[in-house]
Amino acid sequence: MSKSAAKKIQAIRGMNDLLPSESPRWQFFEAKVRQLMHRYGFDEIRTPIVEQTALFARSIGEVTDIVEKEMYTFDDRNGDSLTLRPEGTASCVRAAMEHGLLHNQTQRLWYQGPMFRHERPQKGRYRQFHQVGVETYGFDGPDIDAEVILLSARLWQELGLLEHVTLELNSLGSAEARAAYRDKLVAYFDQHHDVLDDDSKRRLTSNPLRILDSKNPAMAEMLNGAPQLMDHLDDESRTHFEQLKAMLDAAGINYVVNPRLVRGLDYYCRTVFEWTTTALGSQGTVCAGGRYDGLVEQLGGKPTPAVGFAMGIERLILLLETLELIPEEALGGCDVYLLPMDDNATIVALTLAEKLRSELPTLRLQLHCGGGSFKSRMKKADKSNAPIAVLLGEDELAEQAVTLKFLRDDREQLRVSQAELSATLQNLVPH
Predict the structure, then answer these.
(1) Rounded to whole angstroms, how far apart are CA atoms 395 and 403?
(2) pTM recorded for the entire structure
(3) How far is CA 423 from CA 136, 337, 402, 416, in A?
């Protein structure tokens, strides 16, 4: 087969390229997250994207949609079953246990990176998607629940999103209280079996709490009459939840108690929360989390209280773009385009560019490479979106000077010596 006849290879459906025009938006968001985690005293952890399948089957639950339908699972050459991570919490717990981070210690950890689920791609939801997550270990009081919620609220505030999101809270209680409630819930659903849709009938034996989360309008009236978990909480969980609400009230954080809020993963207990928005059309979740005190023990460790959350970066970027909250200066482009006007100026331009990069480390400077006519060089300078072009031609070389041409403003050109260029640019380019 000739090269021209070869079929072009394209990206896998739902796994997207992040193009140079889009990456500045991500860098803006990621920089905000990194700064915030640093300010709250959280340490970054990076885990592999491939784990043993058993990690997710044991942590997420064998009968959840994620494990049953959505995981990318394969046998490697040794015959071991491996899975691309569908979420970050289980990997974080595995790493913390494996490296002794949980023994008589507390930890505040955060991560970011790609996750993988084989679900139907749609706007803001992909098969390879990216999450930022927070995981804390060794704290059993409601104060850490409050802190991770306050951290997320501060992120919304600093991104300009706080007025566009709503915090929903609930408590799932202890495992024992939830088991007793589950029996009552199954009995109630059995009485209304004819109203349940196929998905809910399947969940009735595997994960009946998830039926409460159904968006099927035909089931709405029946679900409104279902027993509420809040009425079946154990005393300790009820006290924990009341204290959490008091802390959020004191911090001025608005919230809605949603008794039908449950998490899709088996390992949650007590506090669960979601930040939702209607700014993307129908109500969507942009951040979700809660307490998972039983997971470490479930994976073979000692009982360890834990609480965390995860947020989808794609959906948050989409939200920021929809609301036009990404500042213009964060959208890329360089500050200065250094342009040798002919090939004789190339070496001087190259050394001058390096000198400027040493003296002005925050300056984004692009050097013209590739030759061409003066007209084509100026076209590339304009295309760079830089506000200033530094021109270096025959006259400038003779005078050891440069000419500053303002590409976005109606200003006179400026001739300065090469020795003064660094100081001049420092005053002209805001940083």
Answers:
(1) 10
(2) 0.86
(3) 47, 16, 13, 10
